[in-house]
């Protein structure tokens, strides 16, 4: 299960089963993002199916959601996992050097990379939904 399926201080999971369609879930995420205070602007919203699989995720941005484009295949997923791991390692080093703002930004960047790790079952569908929404 993706890290995004766990709600944490900067992550919110939205179960797809609460909505009739992915478009409705995306709209529900946008409505939720409108209520997020500017100081909490670095939240990541994740849409999950009823099995807890990641369908789509994005970062809240000025009352909207900047959706993360899903990886297209397993090779790209491996590259994204590697990049996220390296970014988290950089965040740990930054925290050790008491660069807490930098560490927080690096962790958020790693979370955004993780947001691209849409379940293989949903990748093509989510990519198509983003093309239609654009």
What is the end-to-end distance? 28 Å
SSE order, as H and E?
Answer: EHEEEHHH
* Secondary structure: number of strands: 4
Rg (C-alpha, Å): 15 Å
For the report, how would you describe the main beta sheet?
4 strands, mixed
Please state the structural category.
alpha+beta
Instruction: Describe the strand arrangement of the main beta sheet, using strand numbers.
Output: 1-2-3-4
Percent of sequence in beta strands: 15-25%
**Helix proportion of residues, in percent?**
40-55%
Number of helical segments? 4
**Poorly predicted spans:** 1-8
- Give the overall average pLDDT: 85
**Structural shape:** globular
Describe this structure in words.
The chain has helices spanning 22-34, 74-96, 100-114, 123-133; strands at 11-15, 44-48, 54-61, 64-67. The model is unreliable at 1-8 (pLDDT under 50). The chain is globular and about 45 Å long. Helix 2 (74-96) packs antiparallel against helix 3. With 134 residues, the protein is α+β, with helices and mostly antiparallel strands. It contains 4 helices and 4 strands, in the order E-H-E-E-E-H-H-H. A 4-stranded mixed sheet has the order 1-2-3-4.
Features:
disordered N terminus, alpha+beta, 134 residues, 4 helices, globular, 46% helix, 4 strands, four-stranded mixed beta sheet
Task: Summarize the entry for a quick read.
This protein has 134 residues and is an alpha+beta fold. Helix content is 46%, strand content 16%. It is globular.
Give the topology.
Layout: E1 11-15, H1 22-34, E2 44-48, E3 54-61, E4 64-67, H2 74-96, H3 100-114, H4 123-133
Parallel strand pairs: 1-2
Antiparallel strand pairs: 2-3, 3-4
Helix pairs in contact: 2-3
């Amino acid at each position: 299960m993706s890290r995004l399926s766990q709600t944490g201080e900067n992550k919110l999971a939205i179960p797809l089963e609460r909505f009739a369609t992915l478009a409705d879930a995306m709209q529900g995420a946008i409505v939720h993002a409108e209520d997020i205070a500017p100081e909490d602007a670095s939240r990541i919203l994740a849409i999950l199916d009823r099995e807890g699989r990641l369908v789509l995720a994005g970062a809240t941005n000025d009352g909207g959601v900047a959706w993360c484009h899903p990886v297209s295949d397993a090779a790209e997923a491996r590259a994204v996992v590697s990049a996220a791991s390296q970014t988290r390692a950089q965040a740990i080093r930054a925290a050790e050097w008491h660069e807490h703002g930098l560490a927080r930004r690096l962790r958020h960047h790693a979370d955004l990379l993780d947001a691209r790790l849409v379940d293989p079952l949903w990748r093509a569908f989510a990519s198509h939904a983003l093309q239609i929404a654009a």
